[in-house]
Amino acid sequence: MDYVSIRVSTLRGDQKIDFNAYIKINEKMILYLRRGDSFEGDRLKRLKEKQLRKMYILTGEEQLYRGYLDRNLEMAYDNSSGKDLQTRCEVIQGAQQSNCEEVFENPENVETYNYAKEAAGKYVSFVMSNQQSVSSIMHLENTDKNLAHHGVTVSTLAIALAQKLGVNDLKKTQLLTLGALLHDYGHFLSGMNVNQKLSAMNPADKLLWWKHPSEGATKVRDKKHFDQSVINIIAQHEELIDGSGPLGMREKDIDPLAVIVCSANAIDRLITFEGVPKTEAAKKLMLERVGQHPLQHIQLLSDIMKGI
User: Are 268 and 145 in contact (CB under 8 A)?
Assistant: First the structure.
């Protein structure tokens, strides 16, 4: 029998599945959940705790899985669905994370990129029209320090920051969101351990970190379907306005969307990879990084974090 992988991030505990779901153990497929059952209780939690990112279904049931995804997303984006906002955010966050992982793994696939781009536009509208969505997304802990989950969080903070800055152009915010989602493609390529403080990195890891924006951008620069703004964000998201980033660019030379992503990224790096409490992250950024990020960004991010 032939199998195709599915992403655990797209599965919901409260929804019955209409396909059989398998896990792979020592190259053998083991039936984990039968058609008509759900991931309620600890079933989904156990998978995530084990950092299992993929399950498998029979190739012939792929359309059933697609239908399951479509129903969940339709419900999540429907303000009149009757579902609470936290449940809707969990579904949408999982879908965004999956989109990021798909592009990371298949950057040459035009359809995959365009799907993520379209979804980014929908995500902008959802976040901007649901004020509490930022808080709900931020409460979804990135327990396994997943780069794609980090990308969703950074894109969420970038949208919230852009909205406060008055950046409401739909095209710009769509590309901002997509770029933020994919910003750490270079880390995906290198496989380095990002779950450590920058100040504690050994020389080899520090070099990988220093090079990851350029490495990521270089790998997609020849892909004609990648928007230039997205490539700029990947290349420049670690650039600091005082010129102390990897490329030595100053604020006037950095893509304005990349400056927003850089500020949002700095906050979530402290929270996700350096263990700083959400309540302290903006304060730490203000104390230690003022002059490296626009003061207005830090102040607005502090306001955003107070609402979480």
Answer: no
The residue-averaged pLDDT of 210-226 equals: 98
Question: Which residues lie closer than 8 Å to 247 by C-beta, 6 or more apart?
Answer: 213, 214, 235, 236, 239
Q: Which stretches does DSSP call E strand in the chain?
A: 3-7, 21-25, 28-33, 54-58
Q: Say if residues 56 and 3 touch (Cβ distance below 8 Å).
A: yes
Q: Which residue has the tokens 């402290």?
A: 270
Instruction: Output helix, strand, coil percentages for the chain, rounded to the nearest 5.
Output: 60, 10, 30
Please give the average per-residue pLDDT across 116-136, as a whole number. 97
C-alpha distances in Å from residue 283, one per residue of 89, 288, 298? 27, 9, 9
Residue 230, pLDDT above cutoff 90: yes
Closest CA to 134 of 122, 123, 119, 147: 123
Distance linking the first and last C-alpha atoms of the chain: 47
What is d(CA 166, CA 178) in angstroms, rounded to the nearest whole number? 19
The pLDDT-based confidence of 40 (bands split at 50, 70, 90) is confident
Q: Specify the pLDDT at position 114.
A: 98
> What letter does residue 41 receive in the DSSP assignment?
T
Q: What percent of the chain shows pLDDT beyond 70?
A: 100
- Stretch 192-210: mean pLDDT: 95
pTM for this model (two decimals) = 0.93
- The proportion of the chain whose per-residue pLDDT surpasses 90, expressed as a percent, equals 91
Q: Alpha carbon of 53 to those of 14, 48, 108: distances in Å?
A: 19, 7, 22
Both tokens of residue 196? 């450590």
Residues 6+ apart with CB under 8 A from 54: 5, 6, 7, 8
